[in-house]
Amino acid sequence: MKYERLRWLFLSLVCSACAVCAEVYFYHHYRIAWDRQVLRCIDARFLLVDLKDKAVVRDRLYAYKSEQAAPIIKNGTLVGKYLRGMPGDTVEVRHDDTVWINGRKIAEGMPHLRGMSEAQRTKFYGSRVLGEDEYWMMGTKYLSFDSRYWGPIHRSQIVARSYALF
User: Fold this and answer.
1) Could you report the per-residue pLDDT of 121-161, keeping only the tens digit for each?
2) Which residues neighbour 128 within 8 Å (Cβ) at sequence distance 6 or greater?
3) How many CB atoms lie within 10 A of CB 114?
4) Euclidean distance between CA atoms 7 and 1, whole angstroms
5) Which pLDDT does position 48 carry in this prediction?
6) Euclidean distance between CA atoms 8 and 115, whole angstroms
7) Model pTM?
8) Distance in angstroms (rounded) separating the CA atoms of residues 156 and 120
9) What is the DSSP letter of 16?
10) % helix / strand / coil in the chain, to the nearest 5?
């Protein structure tokens, strides 16, 4: 009987130690991000942010800290979007509300410009080559508030690679 109690105590301690180690590992490598918006920009409500994966690759999902989208997105808010344009890419937002990168159409529509006069809308259109520290971020939803409206972000804003959970 005494042996059985010691065995369960030992197993309990081992399991507890494993759980603590797993929690510490997870805390140092990952974060769970939750999109609280009613109108989401991507097809996920929760993201797994891999803090150790900082390499930037086109068309992957990244978490970054918002700096220039206020008052719609508060500065410092962790945001998840797809990296569509990289340094040296030519980005063009046309008057027909389409977005092109390096001659390839990547998005249609700019619904957040509804109700603006043509003169007000003009400042959103044009073509530019992204600088050495500029990245073009886009959502996958029609109503996504993204680089179409506030321009590129800087490398220092990118926190890490993210993965859509659900």
Assistant:
1) 999 999 999 999 999 999 999 999 999 999 999 999 999 99
2) 90, 91, 92
3) 7
4) 10
5) 96
6) 69
7) 0.88
8) 30
9) H
10) 25, 35, 40
